Amino acid sequence: MDKARPFVAVVDDEESVRSALLRLLRASRLDCEGFASGAEFLHSLAQRRPDCLVLDLQMAGLNGRDVQRLLIGRKSPIPLVMITAHDEPTIREQCLADGASAYLRKPLRGDLLIRSIHAAIAATPSR
Prior knowledge:
By secondary structure, the chain is α/β, with parallel strands linked by helices. The protein has 5 helices and 5 strands; from the N terminus they run βαβαβαβαβα. It has one domain: Rossmann fold, CATH 3.40.50.2300. Strand 4 (80-84), helix 4 (89-97) and strand 5 (102-105) form a beta-alpha-beta unit.
């Protein structure tokens, strides 16, 4: 693992979206790994903690809000960028109030996502 390259976890239950996001992040020189569910991501934390999490809001099983709530209160919070195809102002406000660095609507602009990831990482105190 190259410490100079931030590690970003991508959680989205749509394979095509997840694959496209991983290609974009790799092209932007980010180390990344994709997860098909919130539960799969949460289990991965025992092995490797990401520098930033890109998390889909609407997923089967644990949705993005469920995962976000489970991550709240950890000693070292994970910077989070929430993504969604269905923008709801109330949910956006809740996600941001609960610590999400950004709330982005699909289809995503690649440059905005990359900037949001870097801003989320930069705003996090050193661990």
